[in-house]
TrEMBL record:
Protein name: Purine and uridine phosphorylase
InterPro entries with a match to the protein in the record: NLR-like, Nucleoside_phosphorylase_sf
Highest taxon of the lineage: Eukaryota
GO MF entries: catalytic activity
Listed GO biological process terms: nucleoside metabolic process
Annotated TM spans: none
Length: 346
């Protein structure tokens, strides 16, 4: 898709593909899969007023610019995309690559596990819509945004969903994952293990037992600040509240190891919001109402400026039990999937 056929550092006006990452862990995983990285010499002098930082090089025979966002959120994404346009005026495709929260069971009854990859078919901006006396109606960015994904992206997404293409995509993704995890610098990017993939009942909140809370705050209606910073192990979260899942059981029975774990790829809508969702009840309500399968924070900001495809690895279940343990692996699976899709002709 958008092949450039470049073998050396070209003029910045010839770049057509931009990758965006909001977190260092996301950018590190992407950079690990660059085939070649070019220094920012005179050919890559930024345009006046462009405050962005870039990594520039070759990936899957495409000239690619990676834009490093200074912070998470739609405003940061929009600003970085606008600045990038000054320096790289002919960008036709934006790829937002990183991590996201997910719905553990979609409306189609498909299980999503941590480390699985979500490729968005459409982005819904949480505060983009119309406020009526009785309801707030959100707009669908794919349909209503003037900068919605191009016809080329829509066609490419359709191709990626073909069974034969998905099989190739998963095979190449596994190869790319091995490339990342084999590096000593990415020791934390290996699969954490099936026993670490836990999803609790939606109503079960991450908090102290009422009698064990030193502050006396933890109750059915409130959670103390200390509990918010503690892990499930430290809190002693009740494993009896775990939701049984078929894929987890199958992996446990077959002895799925770190080496042979193979993430699934899911296609669906994402909600783009400046709030980090850490409530399973809200997660499920939003998913049911909006038909989304994942939650992220930058897609809507990029889509305002550049036609964008979002590729994100599942790092948590958007509930109160979320932590950062899965972020390196989820970032690696997203980067591996992006690099794999780049080898599939549009």
């Amino acid at each position: 898709m958008l092949a450039n056929g470049a073998t050396g550092p070209p003029d910045r006006r010839t770049f057509e593909i931009a990758i965006f990452c909001a977190l260092v862990v996301e950018a590190d995983a992407v950079i690990a899969l660059f085939d070649e990285i070019w220094d920012q010499d005179g050919q890559f002098m930024k345009a006046h007023g462009d405050n962005n930082s870039y990594t520039i090089g070759l990936m899957c025979q495409h000239r690619v610019v990676l834009a490093h966002m200074p912070r998470i959120g739609k405003v940061s994404a929009s600003t970085v995309a606008a600045n990038l346009r000054f320096t790289f005026p002919h960008i036709r495709l934006g790829l937002l690559v990183g991590i996201c929260g997910v719905v553990p069971l979609t409306q189609a009854k498909r299980e999503i596990l941590l480390g699985d990859v979500i490729i968005t078919t459409h982005v819904i901006q949480s505060d983009f819509g119309m406020l009526y006396p009785h309801i707030f109606a959100r707009n669908n960015l794919l349909r209503d945004n003037p900068a919605r994904p191009s016809e080329e992206i829509a066609c490419f997404l359709s191709k990626l969903q073909e069974k034969a293409v998905q099989s190739k995509l998963r095979d190449r993704m596994r190869t790319n994952l091995r490339t990342i995890s084999s590096s000593p610098d990415f020791a934390l990017s290996t699969y954490p293990g099936v026993e670490e993939d836990k999803v609790f009942e939606a109503a079960y909140i991450h908090k102290h037992d009422t009698k064990a809370c030193a502050t006396g705050i933890c109750s059915d209606d409130d959670v103390c600040p200390e509990a918010l910073e503690m892990s499930c192990t430290e809190l002693g979260c009740d494993l009896g509240k775990l939701v049984p899942r078929t894929r987890i059981q199958q992996m446990a029975e077959t002895g799925s190891s770190l080496m042979y774990h193979s993430p699934e790829i899911h296609f669906g809508g994402m909600l783009s919001d400046d709030q980090v969702i850490k409530s399973a009840l809200h997660r499920d309500l939003i998913a049911q109402k909006e038909g989304v399968i994942a939650f992220e924070m930058e897609g809507a900001g990029l889509s305002e400026t550049i036609p964008t495809m979002v590729v994100k690895g599942s790092s948590d279940y958007a509930d109160s039990h979320k932590n950062k343990r899965w972020q390196p692996y989820a970032a690696a699976t997203a980067a591996a999937c992006k690099a794999s899709s780049g080898r599939i002709s549009g």
